[in-house]
Specification:
Shape: globular
Number of helices: 12
CATH class of the largest domain: Mainly Beta
Oligomer: single chain
Number of strands: 37
CATH architecture of the largest domain: Distorted Sandwich
CATH superfamily of the largest domain: alpha-galactosidase from lactobacil brevis
Number of domains: 3
Strand content: 25-35%
Bound molecules: alpha-D-galactopyranose
Length: 728
């Protein structure tokens, strides 16, 4: 049992293989956070661990006997209204206008396994002995409010999954203004605040800054987890590296507005708050109703960022991603977007497919422009009926012809959107998100459907279902190309208008659940102008995500490196596109573009008919190499050996079973800089490894301590080396 309650000391212990999370009940009423970190056995009395300070002035307290000041207590689930003046996890208004809540410990339960979250994505178990779950109930006696805190400790993975359920057991309505998913504490402030910042085509750059007293936060108010700030935060010792030092990770399994916040108080204790962004949030909870807040997955690593990422990779690859594509190899695809944009017909697509098939590509994806009268991005979203001018015999015939060639066929959709110039908008102008009497601001010429409405969700499911049923379609690219403004719903009451951001995400999850379970054979790939909304919530529905619209090899090194902080390589769509690159105009060699793309789910985003015979041979070889290494890359332990954010080179290693794949890239050459030494990680010291091309043998000890040297004098140089263990 990985969860223990010590009733003598009133302390809860959650143990994973190498970590412990500890909470205690203080003065029989306050649930306090005591510890999270390296595994420990026993904790001293709760009161011995409190950051008790003498300065009680201006800090009311109801715990006079110990002198503990409420404002300093590490409240496990702090609420607004007591003498804790830091940012609360819970804030609500009651019918009498009061916003005061007093949560007190009321009981606990330990269950085997882990239950799904109602309506929300979450990590799961396949057998009840994979994890244990602790449920702690806090109550506000006056109002009848009950809050259940859920903690799952995984038995073989060093992760703790937390979530929160609010239950209105009183007789009055409760207006929830903030309900975060996790509060924890670090008992000093010598950490860096590390997050993933970005923009369209420049997703997930790693940023670091020292924790400071007061509040620091990142988040999103776009009703999408967004390109700009991933729902993720790491707090790392200032000296932490890829392989050393304490790093705490917090990853929110949610795709809407989010916040990751630290608050360092006057005695340098750090409160860490994660959850739905309270900005623009409101939820009216009627008596007997419940509200489920999303899950946060916490990790602790005593071996730097690398180990933190490997924990997330394993958990998310095996116990967040679902469906038949979780474990099987996925097809190498070709997508026509950058090859044709909107200008295609059946013949062009068949030509692209034919050439691709001849070099080993397995799936042809028809991107935007196949429906309505969509020859540019200014119309037809919502009208999911084939454009017979482009495809006179329909997608059915095209899909059949491609299937007959021995390839699979896939289709692009953007089902959450509506163009003003569409049949759907002409029939249902109130189906988009808008505020009556205000202009509806378009973005990429489109508006967003109101997924808080059941009939709108039903329409999406029916429209997509009818296309998917009409033809042999085995892949869907689900796009989402704008963020939401003028938030308002024609169907919600005035009191519930601010519920729209969360209701939208619930509607989206419901639509995705219905479609992915109705079509379990179809591979779904998520997309939002590339890697916007590439978050853990989405991975529950799509096993892979289009990492970025930026396909330049150099830019992709930054993007994929940052993405790998949380996301496994098996989830990253990565394509080889034409040069000069359409986003940044850079020309990189086909080899380098291929080597970078092989660190994800490989695809092509160009017309292979435009390549020379020599280049076509390179492509053929790329696909052969990719098929040889993909299991290691997708399922292996990833080590980020050199970071593009730190210099001119990047190196990634993947180790799985008896094989190791090493990828090396020189981004920009500089003269007379010498060679670059790359030391491998995670090998068996005393085992011999043979490098496939040179047939040279090296000991694990040599590769890890002496390392290999790479040429840094050639611009855009890349190498992929495969090592096999020599088994005696
Ligand atoms: C988004 C996607 C692209 C492509 C276009 C089509 O920008 O990220 O890959 O599908 O939409 O309009």
């Amino acid at each position: 049992m990985s969860i223990i309650y010590d009733s003598n000391d009133s302390v809860f212990y959650l143990h994973t293989p190498k970590t412990s999370y500890v909470m205690g009940i203080y003065c029989e009423k306050y649930l306090l956070h005591l510890y999270y970190g390296k595994k420990i056995d026993k904790f001293p009395k709760v009161s011995e661990h409190l950051p008790v300070a003498e300065q009680l002035a201006f800090s009311p307290t109801d715990i006079d006997k110990t002198g503990a000041c409420t404002n300093l207590l590490p409240m496990e689930y702090p609420c607004y209204g007591s003498a804790d003046f830091r940012t609360p996890a819970f804030h609500a208004e009651y019918e009498n206008g009061s916003a005061v809540t007093k949560l007190e410990y009321s009981g606990y339960e330990i269950i085997k396994g882990k239950k799904p979250l109602c309506g929300l994505p979450a990590t799961y178990v396949e057998a009840s002995d994979e994890a244990d779950t602790l449920l702690i109930t806090l109550c506000d006696k006056l109002t009848g409010l009950e809050i259940v805190l859920s903690y799952t400790a995984f038995n073989t993975i060093d992760a703790i999954a937390k979530s929160v359920t609010v239950k209105n057991k009183g007789k009055e309505k409760i207006n929830i203004k903030s309900v975060l998913s996790s509060t924890t504490y670090l008992f000093d402030k010598d950490y860096d605040f590390v997050h993933l910042e970005g923009a369209w085509a420049r997703e997930r750059n790693i940023q670091k800054r020292p924790l400071m007293n007061g509040i620091m936060a990142v988040g999103s108010k776009r009703v999408s987890s967004s390109h700009n700030h991933s729902p993720f935060l790491a707090l790392a010792r200032t000296y932490a590296t890829e392989s050393q030092g304490d790093v705490y990770g917090f990853s929110l399994v949610y795709s809407g507005n989010h916040i990751e916040q630290t608050e360092v108080n006057s005695v340098d204790v750090t409160r860490v708050n994660i959850g739905i962004n309270p900005f623009g949030f409101n939820w009216l909870l009627e008596p007997l109703e419940e509200f489920q807040a999303p899950e946060v997955v916490l990790t602790y690593s005593d071996e730097g960022f690398g180990k933190m990422s490997r924990i997330y990779h394993k958990l998310y690859r095996t116990r967040l991603v679902r469906g038949r594509y979780r474990d099987i190899e996925r097809p190498v695809l070709i997508n026509n977007w950058e090859a044709t944009y909107f200008d295609f017909n059946e013949e062009k697509i068949l030509n692209i497919a034919k050439k691709a098939k001849s070099v080993g590509v397995e799936l042809m994806v028809l991107d935007d422009g196949w429906f309505g009268k969509r020859n540019s991005d200014n119309c037809s979203l919502g009208d999911w009926v084939v454009d017979r001018n482009k495809l006179p015999d329909g997608t059915e015939s095209l899909a059949q012809k491609i299937t007959d060639m021995g390839m699979k066929f896939g289709l692009w959709f953007e089902p959450e959107m509506i163009s003003e110039d569409s049949e759907l908008y002409r029939h249902h102008p109130d189906w988009c998100i808008h505020v009556e009497g205000r202009p509806r601001t378009p973005s990429r010429n489109q508006l967003v459907l109101d997924l808080s409405r059941q009939e709108v969700c039903d329409y999406i499911v029916e429209a997509v279902t009818s296309v998917l049923k009409s033809a042999p379609i085995s892949y869907v690219k689900w796009d989402y190309n704008r963020n939401i403004s003028e938030i308002g719903s024609a169907s919600l009451s005035c009191q519930r208008q601010q519920e729209l951001p969360h209701r939208y995400i619930l509607g989206l999850y419901n639509v995705l659940e219905r479609l992915t379970s109705a079509f379990p054979e179809i591979l779904f790939e998520g997309c939002s102008g590339g890697g916007g909304r590439f978050d853990a919530g989405m991975l529950y529905y799509y096993p892979q995500y289009w990492t970025s619209d930026n396909t330049d090899a150099i830019e992709r090194l930054y993007i994929q490196h940052g993405t790998s902080m949380v996301m496994p390589s098996s989830t990253m769509g990565a394509h080889i596109s034409a040069v000069p690159n359409h986003q940044v105009g850079r020309t990189t060699p086909l080899k380098m573009r291929g080597d970078v793309a092989m660190a994800g789910q490989l695809g092509y985003e160009l017309d292979l008919n435009t390549l020379t015979d020599e280049e076509i041979e390179t492509v053929r070889q790329q696909i052969i190499l990719y098929k040889e290494i993909r299991e290691t890359v997708h399922k292996g332990d990833m080590y980020r050996l050199k970071s593009p954010f730190d210099g001119m080179n990047t190196a990634w290693e993947y180790a799985y079973k008896n094989t190791v794949v090493l990828m090396y890239f020189t981004m920009f050459a500089r003269c007379q800089m010498g060679k670059v030494c790359v030391k491998l990680c995670g090998l068996d010291e005393n085992t011999q490894y043979i490098e496939k091309n040179s047939r040279r043998k090296y000991s694990g000890n040599y590769l890890m301590n002496v390392g290999l040297y790479f040429d840094s004098s050639k611009e855009f140089h890349s190498e992929i080396l495969i090592f096999d263990k020599v088994l005696s």
